[in-house]
Design goal:
single chain; alpha/beta; Spore Coat Polysaccharide Biosynthesis Protein SpsA, Chain A; eight-stranded mixed sheet; 8 strands; Glyco_trans_2-like; hexosyltransferase activity; Glycosyl transferase family 2; transferase
């Protein structure tokens, strides 16, 4: 019988920087008060790092892991889905090389928060840092009270209409829900795996927010933050694919869904100014939230600790010597 875990931590890699990868893995194996497995899913990297990864886990005395390797690059959605299918945890945590847990109890605290509140998915704050180790002052999303208190209509306005969203690394989700929504994306969306949370919020799943950072999020080099024109176009294509999936699933006759169908028919991720006008026209009640989003920036990471990140960096550097 396969061993069961509280959480399956799925690590997506593709031509990843070795130091960033081993920092990420170091932050995982230091998690306490929770049972978990680590699934490293390599999406067709040029260099196979499987032996180095095995050596790292052996050196750290960690045995609950799997390494999956694809012969070709299929995109982030298929990569995470493949990892989740092979998982044995009650919850799924997706993370990429360079992203680290914020402390040794981050995973256990987030899981227990979900258990206490009977949530399907939950996100937290993330401490953004760049290649120099400097934090970003602003965090996302800006409006979090609606998620903490689970005001369903306002959750939809903020996450779906304002696109006031959390980074994917800050989420924890029930395995069965993760698989259900990721399978909807398979062969339709390539890279925007965290857009499944848009569908979950649209479907009024139990989505919550915990007001504590759980992740160091490496900012500036990844697909969504590197500001590379080629990748920007690919991500916009994914955005439009996600909207099409939502449009096909949006069949209800509620006050929100009737207008949301109209909104999705005319929304185009490539036309930013037109989209803003469209939002205000179809959902005029979103204007106060939009003003709040733009004027009251949350700044709760100025005093963030980097002690755990540095501990994991030292462990990774020591292994690579």
């Amino acid at each position: 019988m396969a061993k069961k875990f509280d959480v399956s931590v799925c690590v997506a890699i593709y031509n990843s920087d070795p130091l960033q990868l081993f920092m990420t893995l170091a932050s995982m194996i230091r998690q306490k008060q929770v049972s978990f497995e680590v699934i490293v899913a390599d999406d067709g990297s040029v260099s196979d790092m499987s032996e180095q990864i095995r050596a790292f886990f052996k050196a750290e005395g960690f045995e609950d892991y799997k390494i999956l390797r694809s012969e070709k690059n299929n995109g982030t959605v298929i990569n995470y889905l493949r990892a989740a299918v092979s998982s044995s945890g009650k919850y799924i945590k997706c993370i990429s090389a360079g992203d680290l847990f914020y402390s040794e109890t981050s995973l256990s605290e987030l899981m227990r928060y979900m258990e206490r509140n009977s949530l399907d998915a939950c996100f937290t704050d993330a401490v953004y840092y760049n290649s120099r180790g400097l934090p970003e002052v602003s965090v996302d999303p800006q409006i979090v009270g609606v998620h903490r208190k689970r005001y369903l209509y306002l959750q939809k306005l903020c996450y779906l209409i304002l696109s006031d969203r959390a980074c994917g690394a800050a989420w924890l989700v029930r395995r069965e829900e993760f698989l259900r929504y990721m399978r909807l994306f398979a062969n339709k969306v390539r890279f925007c795996e965290d857009s499944i949370y848009c569908l979950m919020i649209m479907d009024e799943k139990r989505v919550g927010f915990r007001y504590e950072p759980s992740i160091y999020y490496h900012y500036g080099d990844g697909l969504s933050t590197a500001k590379n024109e080629t990748w920007t176009l690919k991500l916009r294509e994914d955005d439009n694919a996600v909207n099409l999936i939502q449009l096909r699933r949006c069949r209800g006759n509620s006050f929100f869904e009737k207008r949301y169908r109209f909104f999705l028919r005319f929304f185009d991720a490539r036309k930013r100014l037109i989209n803003i006008v469209l939002k205000m026209f179809v959902f005029p009640e979103v204007l106060p939230l939009w003003i709040l989003q733009k004027t009251r920036r949350r700044k709760n990471v100025k005093s963030a600790s980097f002690a755990f990140l540095e501990e994991c960096r030292s462990a990774a550097e020591k292994f690579m010597l």
